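Section 5: illustrative case.
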């Protein structure tokens, strides 16, 4: 029976693949036919992405005239549905060939219903969380006329100082690849079609390795590290069928990514076989001159185009220079055709030529679907990580009478959702109703007394991109007297309460683009307030709301319970309350190594060995003033129950370089309540043509277990898991060697087996 079912599934997969290819081929043929009718200016127009909103400080103007001339292929930064339809009518009715415009926006983690930020969803260690959230977001976006989103961001982030760590899946290429595939599936489905939203896989590539964690700064990455770590999630997204890639802002080994032929052509197209198109990040083509890479705008257009960049985002550099470069003989019109073809093909695949307009009468009904809020609440709770729970402080009892809610994030409707929210950015303000932690607590405990002390409003020292777009001003720090007054208020509220919940972390604009930090301290006077309430002797639960790990050394020693909620989204307050009161048992795990101090960054578990390994008995620390090991390791997270891992076995203890073995391990819920375990499998290659990381994640599975229940989980180990790109041989291969295999709850797992790979 199982053999017949397997054969049937294979047959269906073969049919689906054939249909996908047929659909792509049909779209491409229609695009080729259209391309033959286009003049040079119209072709160059398809390579131009124009701003849909007027931003004087960026030099943008309304694109009406260019659209009517057929000289705009895409419009971004526009969410007004009436304006989208108005511009589309200009494109379809007034341009010579009636080619529709592709509207694009940063739909990062939801549209009106805002889901947890990507770093939070990665903390679920459940790719279906990302897929469900992005599928719902795609339905919303498509209904609102947005058929192209600038996500997923799949940059590996090993440095918590980097602000855009919040947009990705953390430090590990295996986990990051799983989340990348899930997001592509969520937005595009199994193939790009009339129900899809086109993704833009960003930022290609190495953007997350910026010097000092400083956003936009240069990245210097050896090719071995680049291929084995930083490129892996991008390759996974490409293999999943991503239709678009976005080039990064920064220099990669002194060559700007937007003008980098090795990246955009040699690797992406020639090695991987990518058939879609590449767009620059905003103004990145013009910035090639700023980088000192291009002589002038014409040279910038030439270098970006010949590197393999199809579309210029917002800088108008292609619009003003490409046609002349063709006339001067520096670029051929055939090259222009090659760049335009995948853009037109994508428009046909998306059904844009057949249905160019959105139905304005159905937008609000779609965006306000109640099932989205229920889904968001579930996914938010599934993404939270319990960092500490001494003496079973959590879950809380609903009989609590008096709570002191301390901190600036306890009742902040904007910050509960995090940054890059669609309607909050260019939509004139959020149109949903975010649930804060205070609201969630009141809903859970309608008869309890909840005293709130927010503390002074948090503010950056220097304004960021989102602050500027929102017109938000930098506030002066509180005076010593104001600080003392707030601390006294917090202490008094705590003294009068049965329990203290400290909602602390960062406001949304502190974790985003152009939001790097030199320290990881709790901003403002939050630390003083936390220490003051803890000094009262009342039980304290610290709920962290942030887009990165923070310096919580003091809290880890003095606060009995710590829950990392990240930015949980529209239903975040309800989801936090669900976890705090035990309706949901937290099962999330860290997608990053949690640093003790900012000075320890970059910090990551999958480093190579040194002559003084950390597992030796005499090892203390790499630093003399602070422990160099992370405060919490990669993959770490507690539960309201406990788990035991046992019976780690390999189906074959010895395989050839082309062989495969299966890892099996028993996982038992040894506690008294149901909970989710996340089984993690790590390997280490002991010797070979290059030093290999001390541990590498090569399998994981989140599984629900009832009290006393045991499940046997299996994981493959073969070519995909064992190979690496060697700096000696300059190729991918599985090498004969001895391998360590571990299974357990995090990257420090001790349950071990040996694997031998023979020639």
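Designed sequence:
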């Amino acid at each position: 029976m199982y053999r017949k079912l397997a054969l049937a599934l294979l047959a269906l997969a073969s049919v689906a693949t054939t249909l996908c290819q047929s659909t792509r081929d049909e779209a491409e043929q229609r695009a080729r036919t259209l391309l033959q009718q286009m003049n040079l200016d119209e072709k160059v127009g398809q390579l131009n992405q124009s701003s849909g909103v007027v931003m004087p400080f960026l030099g943008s103007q309304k694109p009406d005239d260019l659209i009517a001339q057929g000289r705009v292929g895409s419009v971004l930064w526009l969410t007004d549905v009436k304006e989208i339809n108005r511009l589309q009518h200009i494109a379809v009715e007034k341009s010579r060939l009636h080619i529709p415009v592709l509207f694009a926006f940063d739909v990062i983690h939801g549209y009106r219903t805002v889901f947890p930020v990507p770093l939070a969803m990665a903390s679920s260690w459940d790719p279906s969380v990302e897929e469900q959230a992005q599928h719902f977001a795609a339905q919303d976006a498509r209904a609102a006329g947005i058929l192209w989103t600038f996500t997923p961001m799949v940059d590996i982030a090993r440095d918590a100082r980097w602000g855009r760590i919040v947009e990705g899946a953390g430090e590990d290429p295996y986990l990051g690849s799983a989340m990348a595939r899930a997001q592509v599936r969520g937005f595009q489905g199994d193939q790009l079609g009339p129900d899809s939203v086109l993704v833009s896989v960003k930022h290609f590539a190495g953007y997350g390795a910026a010097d000092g964690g400083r956003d936009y700064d240069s990245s210097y990455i050896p090719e071995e590290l680049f291929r084995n770590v930083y490129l892996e999630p991008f390759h996974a997204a490409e293999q999943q069928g991503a239709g678009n890639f976005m080039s990064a802002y920064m220099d990669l080994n002194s060559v700007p990514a937007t003008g980098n032929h090795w990246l955009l052509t040699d690797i992406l197209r020639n090695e991987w076989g990518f058939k879609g198109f590449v767009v620059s990040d905003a103004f990145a083509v013009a910035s090639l001159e700023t980088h000192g890479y291009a002589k002038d705008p014409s040279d910038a257009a030439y270098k970006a185009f010949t590197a393999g960049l199809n579309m210029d985002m917002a800088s108008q550099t292609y619009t003003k220079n490409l046609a002349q470069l063709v006339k001067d003989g520096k670029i051929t019109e055939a090259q222009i055709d090659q760049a335009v073809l995948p853009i037109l093909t994508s428009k046909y695949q998306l059904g844009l030529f057949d249905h160019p307009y959105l139905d304005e009468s159905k937008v609000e009904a779609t965006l306000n679907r109640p099932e989205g809020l229920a889904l968001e609440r579930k996914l938010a709770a599934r993404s939270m990580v319990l960092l500490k729970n001494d003496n079973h402080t959590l879950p809380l009892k609903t009989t609590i009478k008096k709570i002191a809610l301390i901190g600036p994030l306890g009742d902040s409707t904007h910050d509960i959702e995090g940054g890059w929210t669609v309607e909050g950015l260019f939509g004139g303000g959020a149109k949903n109703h975010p649930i804060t932690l205070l609201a969630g607590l009141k809903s859970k405990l309608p008869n309890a007394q909840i005293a709130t002390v927010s503390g002074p409003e948090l503010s950056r020292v220097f304004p960021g991109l989102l602050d500027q777009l929102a017109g938000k001003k930098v506030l002066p720090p509180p005076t010593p007297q104001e600080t003392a007054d707030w601390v006294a208020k917090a202490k008094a509220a705590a003294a009068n309460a049965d329990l203290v919940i400290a909602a602390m972390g960062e406001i949304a604009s502190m974790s985003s683009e152009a939001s790097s930090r030199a320290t990881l301290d709790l901003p403002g006077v939050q630390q003083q307030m936390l220490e003051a309430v803890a000094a009262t002797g009342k039980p304290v639960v610290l709920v962290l709301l942030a887009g990165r790990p923070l310096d919580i050394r003091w809290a880890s020693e003095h606060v009995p319970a710590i829950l990392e909620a990240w930015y949980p989204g529209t239903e975040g307050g309800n989801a936090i309350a669900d976890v705090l009161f035990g309706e949901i048992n937290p099962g999330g795990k860290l997608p990053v190594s949690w640093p003790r101090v900012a000075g320890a960054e970059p910090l990551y578990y999958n480093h190579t060995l040194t002559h003084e390994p950390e597992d030796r008995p005499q090892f203390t620390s790499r630093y003399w003033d602070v422990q160099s090991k992370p405060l919490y390791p990669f993959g770490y997270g507690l539960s309201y129950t406990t788990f035991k891992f046992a019976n780690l076995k390999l189906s074959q203890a010895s395989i050839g370089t082309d062989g495969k073995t299966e890892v099996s391990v028993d996982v038992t819920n040894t506690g008294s309540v149901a909970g989710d375990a996340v089984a993690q499998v790590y390997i280490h290659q002991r010797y070979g043509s290059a030093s290999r990381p001390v541990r590498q994640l090569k399998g994981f599975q989140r599984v629900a277990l009832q009290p006393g229940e045991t499940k046997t989980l299996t994981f493959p180990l073969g070519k995909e898991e064992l190979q690496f790109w060697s700096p000696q041989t300059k190729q991918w291969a599985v090498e004969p060697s001895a391998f360590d295999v571990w299974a357990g709850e995090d990257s420090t797992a001790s349950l071990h087996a040996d694997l031998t790979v023979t020639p």
